[in-house]
Amino acid sequence: MSMLGGSAIAALADSSSLIVHSARPQDLETPVHLLTTWITPNDAFYIRSHFYTPAIDAQTWQLPVDGDVARPLALTLDAIRRMPSRDVPVTLECAGNGRGNYDPPVAGVQWRRGAVGNARWTGVPLADVLRKAGLEPSAKFIWIDGADTGLGRAPDFIRSVPIDKVLRGDVLLAYAMNGEPLPLAHGFPLRVIVPGWEGAYCVKWVNHITASDHDHPGPFVSASYRIPRRPVPPGSVVNAADTVPIRGLVVKSIITSPADGAALMPGQAATISGFAWSGEYAIRTVEVSIDGGRSWAFARLGDDHAPHAWRQFTLPWRPRDPGSRVLLSRATDVRGRRQPLAADWNPGGYLFNAVDSVRVNVGEELAASPSHHPSDPYAPIAAVTPQDEAAAELLKTRCTICHATDLIDAQRLDANGWQRELTKMTGWGAQLSPSERDLLIDYLIRR
Ligand SMILES: Nc1nc2c(c(=O)[nH]1)N[C@H]1C(S)=C(S)[C@@H](COP(=O)(O)O)O[C@H]1N2
Ligand SMILES: [Mo]
Q1: N or C: which end of the chain has fewer CB within 10 A?
Q2: What is the rounded distance in angstroms from the CA atom of residue 178 to the CA atom of residue 210?
Q3: CA of 51 to the centre of ligand 1 (A)
Q4: Rounded distance between C-alpha atoms, residue 196 and residue 373, angstroms
Q5: Residue 332 has pLDDT above 60, yes or no
Q6: Per DSSP, which regions of 58-163 are E strands?
Q7: Protein residues with CB under 6 Å of any ligand 1 atom
Q8: Which domains does the chain show, CATH number per domain?
């Protein structure tokens, strides 16, 4: 057990180059210009954790496998590492990647383009572990829990994978990422990888697996990670009964080079490159436009590929005339699904996949950051009036008990949105009197 033995603490990712949406819990995004290789290095890989990273003791760690099984098990890491393993490249994307682009704004981490990465995962098929336990035919869902627990009264993060996806054999219990033991932030000592499905299926710090004849009733299954059955007008409130769980991912591409706002020299050779993916489906083409969408050219697809991994694309370009240019990319998958000009708005802000764009300037440095992306939501909250000071004090004393204020600062909600948000927060344990709540909302929508 050499690679997992010894210390109870796995290496924390050196995430200093990532964009911090929330420092506590950790929600870190990869600046897309760092996505230069087909495999994303561990220290550049985005981190999405709803709650605090748990303390893990690898020596005493065990994985109970129970529920609708003939022989409930409690596996040690050693026992798992002795089973036949697989090594598969899988692209992970948070369902909320791109949420920050939705209009009207949606509550949640305001991810831009970089809550996505591609890693080689090593582990054992979950199907093999379930066979060992004697999976009963009654089992329809596999519930997966990790060692993290909800903050305050917020519920535990438990997810559920339909049995047919598990029995296809490609769902992994992974203990290594790009040849290293899983970094703690990415789920040490064991995480689930559900290839081609949105990232929230890939439960980290797995410490309990249960086979069940019904779906898990918790809110991370019944309320989150769901989209309206049919597209709804932007800004709609949708009942959970009118939603379906997200299973796969949608077709998408991002331009990672040149970077948004880059300055290029006229007449000098450049390469437009990026990545495209479509969950369980392969990419057929990526088209790139250098004239804001009037004309398109097929990009070359990279040699590296795997069934559930993104594809790199490149298109050589020699910009001629000086001026500002919008570069676009749009991918089409093997089913013929193509990236739309605008993504379907949904109340969770999931699956943003509009045609990607970056603005570059040929010939001169851009003065200010190009603002075709929504306004920068990261302006700090400044307290100026006594009301502002009182509100800032409330944020500090009532909110930071559970999380840093960066998560709050970045939201772009209106009064109704903040009402809903604060109802959720007080339900989870935030203390606010009605007048404090009014004061806070007045401040949050004005700032
Ligand atoms: N136990 C646990 N597993 C989790 C999460 C979590 O908060 N707790 N976040 C999920 C979400 S929403 C995503 S997108 C991926 C992110 O994986 P990463 O942090 O390794 O990039 O982990 C998933 N697994
Ligand atoms: Mo996610």
Answers
A1: N
A2: 28
A3: 10
A4: 27
A5: yes
A6: 62-67, 73-76, 86-93, 116-125, 141-146, 158-162
A7: 45-51, 92, 94, 146, 148, 157, 186, 199-200, 202-205
A8: 6-224 (3.90.420.10), 252-362 (2.60.40.650), 386-444 (1.10.760.10)
Which pLDDT tens digit goes with each residue over 97-134? Answer: 999 999 999 999 999 999 999 999 999 999 999 999 99
Tell me the two tokens of residue 37. 């290789």
The span from the CA of 351 to the CA of 447, in Å, is 29
Residue 447, pLDDT score: 87
Residue 400: what are its φ and ψ, rounded to 5°? Answer: -75, -5
* Å from CA of 225 to ligand 2 middle: 8
Contact present, 134 and 115 (Cβ < 8 Å): no
For 375-397, how does the pLDDT look when each residue is reduced to its tens digit (9 = 90+)? 454 555 554 799 999 999 999 99
**Residue located via tokens 């909320």:** 96
- Chain-centre distance of CA 59, in angstroms? 30
User: Which of ligand 1's atoms lies nearest the C-alpha of 187?
Assistant: 20
The number of the ligand 1 atom at minimal distance from the alpha carbon of 45 is 21
**What's the CA-to-centroid distance between 288 and ligand 2, angstroms?**
28
What pTM was computed for the model? 0.94
Residues 6+ apart with CB under 8 A from 198: 93, 94, 95, 225, 246, 247, 248, 249, 279, 350, 351
User: CA 445, CA 308: separation in Å to the nearest integer?
Assistant: 41
| Tokens read off for 23 | 């420092």
Q: Taking Cα atoms as reference points, which of 33, 34, 56, 54 lies closest to residue 44?
A: 34
